[in-house]
Amino acid sequence: MLRSCAARLRTLWALCRPPVGRRLPGSVPRPELRSFSSEEVILKDCSVPNPSWNKDLRLLFDQFMKKCEDGSWKRLPSYKRTPTERIQDFKTRFLDPKLMKEEQMSQAQLFTRSFDDGLGFEYVMFYNDIEKRMVCLFQGGPYLEGPPGFIHGGAIATMIDSTVGMCAMMAGGIVMTANLNINYKRPIPLCSVVMINSQLDKVEGRKFFVSCNVQSVDEKTLYSEATSLFIKLNPAKSLT
C-alpha cells in the first residue's frame, strides 16, 4: 500500500505547481493571485470527480449518486468560498460589520478547498434527511502528511469537524462547534480513501449532539471515532 501511495505522490508532484508563496530554485515566479471573489472560482463545484480522484473514491461516488436517484440521499455541492448571500446573512445576524473588512473577505477561501486538485482535501458529502445522517467520502492528498506516509491527525480532525458540523447544520441551521472528542484508533495512509459516517444523535434546545466514525472503504478497518456538540447560534446575540 505504501509503495502505491509513493507512486501516486511522485505523479502528483510531477504534475502540481509549488504551493503559494514558494517556488522551486530557477523556476519562473508565479503570477499574482486573483481575488477569490471571481465568478469562476465561486461557481466551481469541488465535490465532483476530478482527475486526482482514485478508483475507490470514484466508485463510492457512483454508488451514492445511485442512492440519490430516489431522493433519499442528496449530494451537497462544495465551493472554494462561502456564497455571497450566506456571508452577508452571517455578517448581518451575528457579527459586528466593522470586524469583517470587505478586502479581507474578498480573499477568503474555505480551508478544506484551499489546495490544488489532489494535493489536500478531496471529498464529497451526501446527506439523508430522514435518517439525519451525513456521509463524507474523503481522500487525503500528500500535502496533509503527518507521520511519514500517513495523514496528519489535525487534517483528520478537520474532516471530522466538517462532516459532523454539516450534519448538525442541515438539521438545525447555522451552528458552531462547542466540543469535539476524537479517539484515534489507527493511522490513515496518504492517498487512501475513507468513509466518515455521522449521525445526529439528539437535540436539546439549541444543542445538537452528533457522533461519527471513520472507516476504510471495505468497512473492515476503524480509523477513528468521535462525538461532538454543536450550538445553534442565536441571531439576537452577537458573536463578538
TrEMBL record:
Chemical reaction(s) catalysed: tetradecanoyl-CoA + H2O = tetradecanoate + CoA + H(+); decanoyl-CoA + H2O = decanoate + CoA + H(+); dodecanoyl-CoA + H2O = dodecanoate + CoA + H(+); (9Z)-octadecenoyl-CoA + H2O = (9Z)-octadecenoate + CoA + H(+)
One GO MF term attached to the UniProt entry: long-chain fatty acyl-CoA hydrolase activity
Matches recorded under InterPro entries: HotDog_dom_sf, THEM4/THEM5_acyl-CoA_thioest, Thioestr_dom
Bilayer topology term: Peripheral membrane protein
GO cellular component: cytosol; mitochondrial inner membrane; mitochondrial intermembrane space; ruffle membrane
Ranges of residues in domain Thioesterase: 149-221
Enzyme Commission number(s): 3.1.2.2
Keyword Ribonucleoprotein: no
Keyword Heme recorded: no
The entry's keywords: Apoptosis, Cell membrane, Cell projection, Cytoplasm, Fatty acid metabolism, Hydrolase, Lipid metabolism, Membrane, Mitochondrion, Mitochondrion inner membrane, Transit peptide
CDD domains: PaaI_thioesterase
GO BP, one annotated term: regulation of mitochondrial membrane permeability involved in apoptotic process
Subcellular location: Cell projection, Ruffle membrane; Cytoplasm; Mitochondrion inner membrane; Mitochondrion intermembrane space
Family affiliation: Belongs to the THEM4/THEM5 thioesterase family.
Name of the protein described by the UniProt record: Acyl-coenzyme A thioesterase THEM4
Organism of origin: Pan paniscus (Pygmy chimpanzee)
Lineage, uppermost ranks: Eukaryota, Metazoa, Chordata, Craniata, Vertebrata
Gene expressing this chain: THEM4
